[in-house]
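User: Sequence for Membrane protein DedA with SNARE-associated domain below. Tokens please.
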Amino acid sequence: MRDTFWGMPLWLGVIAAVLIIFVRGQVYYWIGRGLGDRLYTSRPVRRIGEQRVRKVEGMVARRGAVAVFGAHWVAGLRHAIPICAGAARMPLPRYVAASALGSALWTPPWVVGGYAVVWGWLEIFGRSPVAAGALAAAAVAVIAALVLLRGRRRAAPSSKARTGD
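Assistant: Structure tokens for Membrane protein DedA with SNARE-associated domain:
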């Protein structure tokens, strides 16, 4: 495995990634702050649904900094919570502290883990392209199975609701 990331030492790459994620959160906060109540009439919110965005805003109102911190670990929320925190005028010092802590704890495992997976796969590919292809095919099969299983689980309650069970 290489010890560089984008041409810099791995530790410096991790710090750069943490800063990128932190700055992204600040940009989202200020977008929400600038929009304020107009957030709910924006095109993306109309597409997503005002009810869903209000639910996220309620999460920010109830949980505050904990919601901002925890949002780093949930895919859709890591983008929505900072915008709603800005729109709801969450106090900036509290937001910045939670965002900094979340960025610092969430980013390194993803960067280093992703780095290890990519270089591990390249190492396998260098030794046996057939084994690397089989590994990639197995990963795709597992992901496809999980997606299908999730789709079936979501469809099952709606079919029971129609039959009255």
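The longest strand covers residues 4-5.
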